[in-house]
Amino acid sequence: MSEVTLTIDGQPVTVPAETTILKAARSVGKDVPTICYHDHCTANALCRICVVEVEGSRVLSPACAAQVNDGMKVHTQNERVKRSRRTILEMLDSAVDLSEAAAIQAMIGDYQADGERFADGARREHPVLDDNPMYIRDYSKCILCWRCVQVCADDAQYTYAINFSKRGFETSIGTFFDKGMPDTTCVFCGQCVGVCPTGALKPKREWLLEQGLTPDEIMNVTRSGRKRRKR
Asked: Whole-structure pTM over 0.70, yes or no?
């Protein structure tokens, strides 16, 4: 495979052609933040937190999806890039419950994002969905990163139990005809829970412990849930 040489923050980098800017940056220790990106999921450049400036380009480029070119000059931490990331974090914080998204909370601190900047904006609020014995769904914490949809589909499980529902600000993750998870094609593999970065998907036992239930009470709850599912 041919190679290309570019500069990232003034540092020369030589990588195989078709490498993404993100992987090229990481190969030389450059820290480019990511939220929707996951090493084992298809990069769809949804959250835009990984944007970088490529000299000569009119708009910022998503590092997780944009590929390198020979002679490219990339800036990962200039003021334009930082301002864009800060605004994205402020908008996320205004619309979604990020209380359990530790990595995003760290970014908010790193970029000095103002959590009150869009305080008058609408928030995504959803009831906790507790319809199976394996995990709960709290889409008030969902940032629509698409990871759960991807691992449920072509990136891993090929089950297709969930997908995007509605449009615009009302978009959420849902099932066909809003069915409960036991009535979908879900096989309860847990991969969606494993890739969720915000706590929107959480193991049922962990959630019950947070509600104050004892281990014995949790055992009774999960047993009764399994019995209902078998029926």
From this structure: yes
